[in-house]
UniProtKB/TrEMBL annotation:
Protein name, per record: Cytochrome
Subcellular location, principal: membrane
Gene Ontology BP annotations: lipid metabolic process
Organism: Forsythia ovata
PANTHER family: CYTOCHROME P450 (PTHR24296)
Cellular component, GO, one term: membrane
Domain of life assignment: Eukaryota
Family: Belongs to the cytochrome P450 family.
Length: 505
């Protein structure tokens, strides 16, 4: 045979096999996904789907903060993932106009319609200007404090006391989600669904948020050619999203159609009335349509319910594993607020909460490690070169991992994985240190910075101070804690705890 005429082949072949063996071993040691023929790096994504956020962090750490993902040839999934602050600043601020939400984002988040999260250009400007104007109103702040106070006094405390007296465990994440759902519904729709009550009633719309955010991450992880047919057939994660959509519509539409205008008085505030008035003043043609109102309010409900409840859940888990932080928060409350110990419980108002610097630092530290919105994706209108040197072609996806940013040593130091509220407190002034939003994007960055940031901090500090001062929380032994595989970083298994009343109550 001809092959025997070339004996050097028998020397080269073992070398090739040996080199392939070394390559496979290096793949096994590396955390980076393998770029396979035809399917690209999709198998690596699917293999790590159960820990997608930590997988992204591993990959970004090994690749220096930015990584080019190669999708299957049939899926149009090629993208650049990054957690580099310089890239984040460039995309979300410096070159903001080149990175709109765009049609791709709207396809994935179609459930949100024409709300602020999907909006671009003039529609986004309208949403931002109108919402900011309403939330800046002094009456809104008075109404917010009244709503939170009422819900804590008549919902939170009775429910927590019920579980304390019986010595049974409770899912604190579920309690926080019910609290924020009731609160945001009252703020936006002027309707309290009463989900936070002793019997913990099942309310389809409240639970639909969890199914929706899980399905939306599913759309990020798969080509449209796969999730779109699932949507048409009503199967898999898309089936959950369809049911969630129905639950939202069945809840929000009646609230809008049955809404009665509240006469404006000194102590009255009504969001629906204020928003409709703003639409008329700015001549927004679709502003008074029930569909547009549904989209607007659903976006605000998603922001108000999920981000705040998620932040509170992670905060209390971190505090429960750090007794010194818990002690410092209690000491701060007693010292700065002169908290008396002669009442059954104590609720702290807005002005009191603003004095709690260490608690504010603890919340910031929790948000650094577990930002409620884990990822965001963008696509440039025109080709761009980002600061890391990567070329982003027109309409190519860029995935921004906010979750990974908090775990980067080059951003936060070698102690980046530790919970240290002191990280946020200035040694000189004793106040809160300011960190640029492109380093700490828990509330997004640039022109799209979250409008409800201040409202969220108010709620979290009022609720956290009240619970920490009046109760000691113990996480149930061996309870698994890990982030969920969804757009919003909830706890995958909830947060089962036992509560104890403090001796000073």
């Amino acid at each position: 045979m001809a092959i025997f005429e070339y004996p050097e082949v028998f020397l080269i072949l073992p070398c090739i096999i040996f080199l392939c063996f070394l390559r496979i071993r290096s793949w096994n040691k590396s955390l980076l996904p393998i770029d396979w023929p035809l399917v690209g790096m999709l198998p690596g994504i699917l293999r790590n789907a159960h820990r997608i956020h930590d997988f992204a962090t591993d990959v970004l750490c090994e690749s220096g903060g930015t990584f080019e993902f190669k999708g299957p040839w049939f899926g149009d999934m090629d993208m650049v993932a990054t957690c580099d602050p310089a890239n984040i600043h460039h995309i979300l601020s410096k070159n903001f106009a080149n990175y709109p939400k765009g049609p791709e984002f709207r396809k994935i988040f179609d459930i949100l319609g024409d709300g602020i999260f999907n909006a671009d250009s003039e529609l986004w400007e309208f949403h931002r200007r109108t919402t900011l104007s309403i939330m800046s109103n002094a009456k809104f702040h008075t109404f917010l404090e009244r709503v939170v106070w009422h819900k804590v006094e008549n919902g939170f405390i009775p429910v927590l006391d019920y579980f304390v007296e019986r010595g049974i465990e409770v899912d604190l994440q579920d309690i926080f989600q019910r609290f924020t759902f009731d609160s945001i519904c009252k703020l936006i729709l002027n309707y309290d669904p009463g989900s936070l009550s002793i019997d913990l009633p099942y309310i389809p719309c409240e639970k639909a948020f969890n199914d929706a955010v899980e399905a939306l991450l599913h759309r990020h992880s798969l080509p449209e050619s796969i999730w779109k047919p699932q949507k048409w057939l009503g199967i898999g994660k898309e089936k959950k999203l369809i049911k969630a959509w129905e639950a939202f519509d069945q809840f929000v539409y009646p609230c809008i159609s049955q809404h009665k205008v509240i006469e404006e008085q000194d102590d009255n505030f009504d969001f629906i009335t204020a928003f409709r008035k703003a639409c008329k003043e700015t001549n927004v043609a679709s502003g008074d349509s029930i569909e547009f109102l549904r989209d607007t309010f659903l976006n605000l409900m998603l922001a108000g319910r999920d981000t705040t409840s998620t932040s509170l859940t992670w905060l209390f888990w971190l505090i429960s594993t750090n007794s010194s932080a818990e002690t410092k928060i209690i000491d701060e409350i007693e010292t700065k607020l002169h908290a008396k110990k002669d009442k059954k419980w104590r609720l702290f108002d807005i002005e009191e909460s603003r004095k709690l610097v260490y608690l504010h630092g603890a919340i910031c530290e929790s948000l650094r490690l577990f930002p409620p919105v884990a990822i965001e994706h963008k696509a440039p209108v025109q080709a761009d070169i980002i600061p890391s040197g990567h070329c982003i072609h027109q309409n190519k996806k860029v995935l921004l991992s906010f979750y990974s940013m908090g775990r980067m040593e080059k951003i936060w130091g070698k102690d980046c994985s530790e919970f240290k509220p002191e990280r946020w407190i200035s040694d000189e002034s004793g106040g809160i240190k300011h960190e640029p939003s492109f380093k700490f994007p828990a509330f997004n960055a640039g022109p799209r910075t979250c409008l409800g940031k201040d409202m969220s901090f108010i709620q979290m500090k009022m609720v956290a101070a009240t619970i920490i001062y009046n109760y000691h929380i113990q996480v149930v032994e061996n309870h698994p804690v890990s982030p969920s595989d969804s757009i919003i970083i909830q706890m995958k298994h909830g947060l089962n705890v036992r509560l104890l009343k403090r001796r000073n109550i």
